[in-house]
Amino acid sequence: MLYIYIWLYPVLAGILSWILKDSRINKGIVLGHGILHFVAALALGLPQSVLALHFGIDALSGWFMLISAILYLAIGCYSMKTKDGINGRQSSIYTICMMAFVASMDGANLSRDFGLIWVFVETTTLATAMLISFEHHKQSLEAAWKYLFICSVGIAIAFVGVLLLVIAQV
Amino acid sequence: MTDILLVIFGVSLLFASITNMLHSIVRILVVQGLILFLLTIMKTTHLNAWEFAFVALETIVFKTILIPWFILDTIKKNGIKREVEPSVSNFFSLGSMTVIFAFAFFISLWSGQSNPNLYPLHFGIAFAAILKGLFIIIANKKLITHLMGYLFMENGIFMLSLALGSQMPHIVSLGVSLDILLSILIAVLFINKIQSNFEALNIDELSTLKD
Predict the structure, then answer these.
(1) Is A140 part of the contact surface with chain B (CB cutoff 8 Å)?
(2) Closest CA relative to residue A92, chosen from A36, A140, A144, A29
(3) Which of A85, A122, A131, B102 is 20 to 30 A from A49, comparing alpha carbons?
């Protein structure tokens, strides 16, 4: 069930964030997600049976989950003191993209299938591109476009690698 | 029949090297989407209704209808000039495509010696499509043609995944297609924003950030 909560919270909180478009609530949502994510990473690190066919945790992914959880907790605390100039809509976009990014990273960490890992890493690219272009000035747009393209092409070539691994396995 | 479709796909790559119009490249993408649909249907041995729906969604709906429509809409909304405006001549582009084909078929025949399941024509054309996509991205300055080059690459990758037959689960293929659709949507969003902030949708304009 913990696997479902890792993705259910970002989806529901993202919808709530988009409906309310309130900066203060959005900060609370990101901090809440950071705390929940940290607790989930600690819980997943404990020995337990695999609940789903496509998702599971092993020693390496447990480490990565814990590292990302600590970083995201720090980001959640930092997000409480974001700029005052942003409006409710921009704050909601930031909240949704940040949670989507972390949920995708969790998906990549927990996936047992190479294809699924690829899907989640691609989703992190998309969420991060929106975060990079958050401030909407020339440099951020240029950086976001270059990031999106370089990562997309890299991800596409990584998918070729996944396909070649599958061919080699057959 | 699959050989004919593969050859048509390969010819479409050659045609993309010599065309000067953006609309022609979009039409090539539409044709490639249809070819991929037909190839998927022919290559999959048993297909139930759900799998057929997935395949139709990925190829017909995404690759043939939605994505080309998004690109044409972006070209129209941003007033992008209809010419491709490549950095290299058509002759060089065609020559490079010939070399890409030769290299791709060399790799596929060489790999096929140790793996009898590998079909050289299929693998070679798929690999050539991936390299062609990269070439389009490198050889053109317009951002919209970069997007089209990326789509060529994705079509080549989809074709490569068909070489696996039924090894790739359909849910993963659907996830891949959804991600590609989302990345195209986000790229189109960025193109609209770049248009309003920069003078032209050209990679030369995006040069403020440097090492």
Answers:
(1) no
(2) A29
(3) A122
Which B-chain residues 167-206 have CB contacts (< 8 A) with chain A?
167-169, 172, 175-176, 179, 182-183, 186-187, 190, 193-194, 197-198, 206
Q: Are A67 and A43 in contact (CB under 8 A)?
A: no
Per-residue pLDDT tens digits for B50-88: 777 777 777 888 888 888 888 888 888 877 777 767 777
Q: Is it the case that residue B49 has pLDDT exceeding 90? A: no
* CB neighbourhood size of A64 (10 A): 16
CA separation for the pair A19, A143 (Å, rounded): 29
Residue A9 vs residues A17, A94, A96: alpha-carbon distances, Å: 12, 16, 11
Distance CA B37, CA B56 (A): 7
Q: Chain A residue closest to B178 (CA)?
A: A119
Nearest to A100 by CA among A18, A22, A23, A1: A18
Which amino acid makes up residue B180? Answer: I
B176, A159: Cβ pair inside 8 Å?
yes
Quote the CA–CA distance of B182 and A153 in Å, as a whole number.
15
Mean pLDDT within A100-118: 86
Q: What is residue A111's three-state secondary structure?
A: strand
Q: Which residue is associated with the tokens 């709530």? A: A16
Q: How far is B162 from chain A (nearest CA, A)?
A: 10
Instruction: Assess A135–B contact: CB distance below 8 Å, yes or no.
Output: no
| Shortest CA distance from B118: residue in chain A | A167
- Calculate the dihedral angle through the C-alpha atoms of A120, A121, A127, A130, rounding to the nearest 10 degrees: -150
Q: What sign for the dihedral angle of Cα B191, B147, B140, A146? A: positive
Complex prediction ipTM: 0.82
- Let me know: does A136 contact A106? Beta carbons within 8 Å: no
pTM (global) more than 0.90? no
Q: Tell me the sheet residues that pair with A55.
A: A111
What b/e readout covers B46-63, taking b as 16+ CB neighbours within 10 angstroms?
eeeeeeeebbebbbebbb
